[in-house]
Amino acid sequence: MWRTLQPVIDSLFVGPVWPASVLLLLVFVYVGLSLITSFDLGGTGGDGVEIDWDAHGWQSLGAASWRWFHLDSIPIVVWFGIFAAFHWLLAYILWHSFDSSRHEPTFLVTVLLTVRNGTIAALLTRSVTAPLVPYLAKRYGYEDESLIGSTAVVSSGQATSTYGQAKFNTGGAPLLLNIRTTGDSIAKGSAVRIVSYEPVKRVYIVTPEADFPATVSPDEASVR
């Protein structure tokens, strides 16, 4: 039995294939546990994830990358499930048909090829998930323009004319909005009123709302 399985196991856990195999197994385990314990797998992208960068340049880059890969609209579990599948297929096929004849499965080779495979898998995942964005981005029923005039609470370190994020209370999991101010910076935890929306940049323009109590706490949210 073991002698029969040994070649299969060796082929799955060698070179850049083993990180991809581990990632895919983790996704399967998570999905299995979620089904058993009735966890919610239907959350939108960004559920349970909040990235708080220290520098505005990194903030803008991180937010832009998050949106570019559709992680602001596609459920995290769905996105990483597709990514893990692509990553494993690329790692397995490329290693056993091309890379193994040119490289030894050393640590450095494994890292470099894993980065290569991961990059290609991320691009493929973005292409595959693109058609799903219009159907999943509006799952909470909040249209972009309908939020104008509403109030949210700044959740990033601060909000400025170039970067910022705020939580909008939906009565359930709040929406994480990308915001810009009309001038001065606004501190974290401050209430802001949404005055307009820029569809090209997908950001909301806000002004301070001094009289509104900050009731939205920085817990799970979906990025908009």
The unreliable regions are: 38-58, 211-223
H/E element string? HHHHHHEEEEEEEE
Question: Helical element count?
Answer: 6
- Strand arrangement across the biggest beta sheet: 1-3-4-7-6
Overall spatial form = elongated
Q: What proportion strand?
A: 15-25%
The largest β sheet comes out as:
5 strands, mixed, barrel
Assign the structural class, choosing from mainly alpha, mainly beta, alpha/beta, alpha+beta, or little secondary structure.
alpha+beta
Count of discrete domains: 2
Helicity range of the residues? 40-55%
> What's the total count of β strands?
8
Mean pLDDT: 77
As a whole number of angstroms, the C-alpha radius of gyration is 21 Å
Structure description:
This protein is α+β, with helices and mostly antiparallel strands and 224 residues long. It has two domains: 2-136, no CATH class; 145-223, Nucleic acid-binding proteins (OB fold (Dihydrolipoamide Acetyltransferase, E2P)). Helices cover 42% and strands 16% of the residues. It is built from six helices and eight strands. The protein has helices at 2-12, 17-37, 56-68, 76-97, 107-129, 133-136, and strands spanning 151-154, 158-159, 165-168, 175-181, 186-187, 191-198, 203-208, 222-223. The strands form two sheets. A five-stranded mixed barrel has the order 1-3-4-7-6. It has a two-stranded antiparallel ribbon with strand order 2-5. Helix 2 (17-37) runs antiparallel to helix 4. It is elongated, with a radius of gyration of 21 Å.
